[in-house]
Amino acid sequence: MTGSSRLPVSLRDAYQAKRTTPRGQLLALNVDILRNIVFILFVLRWTRKAFYTLKGRGLTGTVIDTYTSVRRILYGYFLRLPGVRSKVQSQVGEAISKLEQKLVPSGPGIDRYIKLPAEGWSAEEVRKELEKLSEMKHTRWEDGRVSGAVYHGGKELVKHHGGEDLVKLQTEAFASFTYSNPIHPDVFPGVRKMEAEVVAMVLAMFNAPEGAAGVTTSGGTESILMACLSARNKAYAERGVTEPEMILPETAHTAFRKAGEYFKIKIHLAPCPAPAYRVNLRAVQRLVNPNTVLLVGSAPNFPHGIIDDISGLSRIAARKGIPLHVDCCLGSFLVPFLQKAGFETEMFDFRLKGVTSISCDTHKYGFAPKGNSTVLYRSDALRAYQYFICPDWSGGVYASPSIAGSRPGALIAGCWASLVACGESGYIAACHKIVGAAKRIESELHAHPVLAADLKVMGKPLVSVVAFTSSTLDIYDVADAMSARGWHLNALQNPPAIHVAVTLPIVGAADQLITDLVESVESVREAERQRVAQGKGAKGSVKGDAAALYGVAGSLPNKSVVVDLAKGFLDTLYKA
Ligand SMILES: *Cc1c(COP(=O)(O)O)cnc(C)c1O
Ligand SMILES: *[C@@H]1O[C@H](CO)[C@@H](O)[C@H](O)[C@H]1NC(C)=O
Ligand SMILES: *[C@@H]1O[C@H](CO)[C@@H](O)[C@H](O)[C@H]1NC(C)=O
């Protein structure tokens, strides 16, 4: 046995051998060198990390981040102290059971089916029960009372073709393709064709260059997950990046954070400061480092409906050679048509050289049935990075473009039918109505004496979402006052605000929305005045749901209580 073949001895053996024999001395020296190299690499790695952290967040930013996370951890321990813990748990439990009472119907009049019926029902019985289910008491989206959620009005849109109803057309499309599954293109050639055509039509809407490609997915979240996966895989394949990071505007959709968790991509949030609420480009630039695999911009974002400075992001992306994803999930079939519908717009699509991928939800303003979206790439090579291919499975060579294996061909047919039934003219007309209504709401917020006194529009929304905040009232009280009037607006946080995402059903209810908002602001203002009159110390009246949740959540250094509440909420969804 030669000396060199004994190298992999344990460190302790090496130290014992140290200096006792010449060979031992040599070995010890080798081990020392190895140890030093490892140490230097370790130090280099941490120096590099520290350097990029400091570069990314600056000295103050780093200090603030450290302070926040120390506070969060300490507060987390505080919440776990025996006395505190039981109190918190009982309050969380109480809140969850209240939620359950609201969401899960119970009582003698309610039939619950928690086992398969021993004998199958007749079609008539099934139909009767389905009808009952669809008519359960709910917030009235049909009357335009719900922000977002249902984007087309069913009857409205396809009227220019002889009064046909879009929902009816979609249902017929389902019926013809219920059994189909695009995983078998030879069995269902029509489905394959429709799917490819949906992608082609959306690519054309976003001015995709020659060679661009895309896929369809089950929704905006999957589209975003796939874009992040593709960027991560590309960076690994082409640059050997093993600790991927991506830079998001803090207002970017939370699906990007989901992608970060699922695919182990570190997230950096870049601020979107008032008054414009667009992502700060200098902050983005500073956060770029050799591990950056993707930049992100929204057109527009969910919270405030603001389009980020995509041209600016594109310049950074192109200069640094990093992919840029533009999230048009919400903008979907509105942003591409703003100009044609006569509204102000901005550049956001593939005409900007740095833009490498775009997500566009057909199931939002494309008016397709829920469960459908697209993700587009500048090249088919980028698309291939999201593919999953397994050449050696015992079940055969397997290849699938996205997360799902088997997929519903019926939804593809429903999506295709919606796109061709509306056509460009249909979408331009819808854009006209929807963005027009959003503008009307925005201008009332600026001009109406009651609204202008207490509410403030956030930034300059160009599309369908109008967000507003208040420096004089608790904006969540306003949200609750609107709920009491039958509205479902979206509560936002950091900073506290609410928004309305205008949809076709809301277009007809916009005037009512203004009226109710005026009333709500007046009532909250009056309640506030009474509270002040009774003295500052007096406990306010019972808070509504939004005010209670966000009032607490906003002030907590560690949101584990909110996490527990949210878990309880998810559990409630599966209570039969
Ligand atoms: C709705 C939305 C998404 C994706 O949401 P899904 O519910 O998964 O379709 C992504 N980004 C923005 C800005 C959105 O509004
Ligand atoms: C709260 O603090 C605990 C530890 O103190 C930590 O593990 C947890 O991740 C924190 N939770 C949140 C949501 O900040
Ligand atoms: C529609 O949705 C299904 C899954 O929900 C998806 O597999 C399919 O690709 C989508 N098709 C289109 C045209 O968006």
Summarize the structure.
Keywords: Lyase, Pyridoxal phosphate, Transferase. By secondary structure, this protein is an alpha/beta fold. It has helices at residues 11-17, 22-80, 82-103, 123-134, 166-177, 189-205, 220-239, 255-263, 281-287, 310-320, 380-384, 409-447, 449-454, 475-484, 504-507, 510-533, 545-555, 560-573, and strands at 213-217, 245-249, 266-270, 292-298, 324-328, 355-360, 373-377, 388-390, 398-400, 456-457, 465-469, 490-492, 497-501.
What report would you give on this structure?
By secondary structure, this protein is of the alpha/beta class. It has 3 domains: 69 residues; 223 residues, Aspartate Aminotransferase, domain 2, CATH 3.40.640; 135 residues, Aspartate Aminotransferase, domain 1, CATH 3.90.1150. The strands form 3 sheets. Strands 1-7-6-5-4-2-3 form a 7-stranded mixed beta sheet, with helices on both faces. A hairpin with a 4-residue loop joins strand 12 and strand 13. Helix 5 runs antiparallel to helix 12 and helix 14 crosses helix 16. The chain starts with 10 loop residues before the first helix and ends with a helix. Bound molecules: pyridoxal-5'-phosphate (PLP) and 2-acetamido-2-deoxy-beta-D-glucopyranose (2 copies). One 2-acetamido-2-deoxy-beta-D-glucopyranose (NAG) binds next to helix 6, strand 1 and helix 12. It is an enzyme of class 4 (lyase). Keywords: Lyase, Pyridoxal phosphate, Transferase. Its EC number is 4.1.2.27. GO terms for molecular function: transferase activity. Belongs to the group II decarboxylase family. Sphingosine-1-phosphate lyase subfamily.
